[in-house]
Amino acid sequence: xxxxxxxxxxxxxxxxxxxxxxxxxxxxxxxxxxxxxxxxxxxxxxxxxxxxxxxxxxxxxxxxxxxxxxxxxxxxxxxxxxxxxxxxxxxxxxxxxxxxxxxxxxxxxxxxxxxxxxxxxxxxxxxxxxxxxxxxxxxxxxxxxxxxxxxxxxxxxxxxxxxxxxxxxxxxxxxxxxxxxxxxxxxxxxxxxxxxxxxxxxxxxxxxxxxxxxxxxxxxxxxxxxxxxxxxxxxxxxxxxxxxxxxxxxxxxxxxxxxxxxxxxxxxxxxxxxxxxxxxxxxxxxxxxxxxxxxxxxxxxxxxxxxxxxxxxxxxxxxxxxxxxxxxxxxxxxxxxxxxxxxxxxxxxxxxxxxxxxxxxxxxxxxxxxxxxxxxxxxxxxxxxxxxxxxxxxxxxxxxxxxxxxxxxx
Length: 410
Hints:
GO terms for molecular function: endo-1,4-beta-xylanase activity. Pfam families: Glyco_hydro_10. Its EC number is 3.2.1.8. It is an enzyme of class 3 (hydrolase). By secondary structure, the protein is of the alpha/beta class. It folds into 2 domains: about 5-35 and about 365-405, Immunoglobulin-like, CATH 2.60.40; about 40-360, TIM Barrel, CATH 3.20.20.80. Helices cover about 30% and strands about 25% of the residues. The protein contains 11 helices and 15 strands. Strands 3-4-5-6-7-8-9-10 form an 8-stranded parallel barrel, surrounded by 4 helices. Strands 11-2-13-14 form a 4-stranded antiparallel β-sheet, with no helix packed on it. Helix 6 (about 175-180) packs across helix 7 (about 185-195). It is globular, with a radius of gyration of 23 Å. The termini are far apart.
C-alpha cells in the first residue's frame, strides 16, 4: 500500500547563522535538531495525575513512555467527579497536573465543560433556570482558574444525543436543560461563556455521532454565530478499524465547514473486536478482554495506517489517542499502547517510529556556506541549531521562510 502524501506538513527554513558579533558563520559545521512538533499528537493524561501531584501512581517508566511520543495532554473535567459536592471542585489537583504537563513542554486540553454523562448529581432535580446558572458559573470558573495553562476545551460533548439521552440509573440535569431549552441554545450559552476565557483558547464542539445529524447541528451552530474554533470527531474503533476510505470520506464531510478538525478520541484494539451488532459501545460488558499477540500486530499496522491517513488531510490539526496503557482503559478494552504490565505493545513502537522517527529530524550535522547559510527541511515545529557550544532556536512554520540566527550561550 502506498503511503498517503503529507508534504503539506513539511516546510523549509533558509537559515543564516551569525556569531555573537552578528557576523556570518562561514564554512562551519553546525548541528540542527528538531525539538517539537507543531502538530498536536495527544493522549489523555488521566493516569499520570497522581504522579503530577506526588502521589502513588504509575511508574516513572510509564511517564517516560508518554512524554517520549506525545505533546498534548487531555485532562478530565467531568463535572460529577470534579465537583462531587457543590462548591468544592478539584481545581488545585488538576491545576498542578496541568502545570506539570506544561513544564514538560506539553500543551494541555480540558475535557469536557458540558456533558450529560458524569455530570453533577446535585443538580439533578433543580429547576432549569438554576441549572443554567450553574452551567454558566461552572464554565466561567474553570476557564478562569485554568487560564494560561489550558489551551483548548471540549466545550460541549456529544450534543447530538444530549436532549434525548436516557439512563434510568442516572437521570441528569444537562439532558433536561438541553430538552427544554434546545441544543442550539445550550451550545450558544456554553461557547459564549467559554469565549470569555480569551481569543487564544481553542473551543471545540465534540461528538461521537458521525451521522448527518452532527453535520446539521454544526450548520445551525455556525449559522447562529456561535464561536466554535474546531470540530471534534471521536473515533473509538472498538468494532474494527474504519479504513482509509471511510476515514477520508468522514473528514471530507466535516472539512466543508472550513474549521480545523481534531480527532479527539481515538482507539484501536489489540484483542478481540467488539461484535458489530452492538449499537452503544457501553453496552458491551465482558469479564475479561485481553490483549493478544495477533491483535497487537493488527493494532500496530492499523495505527500507522490511521495516523498516516489523518495527517494526509490538511484539515486535521490534532489527534488524541485515548489511553496510554490497558490499565483503566475505557470499557476495559485492550486499546492501550502499553500492556497492563507496563511493557510497550508493537503499536507504541510503531507510533513512536512515525512521530519521533520518520516525521522527526534527529541531530544532523550541516555545513554553512560562505554567507553562513544552511537550509533546514522538516515537519512544522521548533528546531535548534548549535555550533561551538552556542545555540539558537527557530521555528519551521511555512513552506519556505528566511531565518537569521545569532548564536547565544557559551
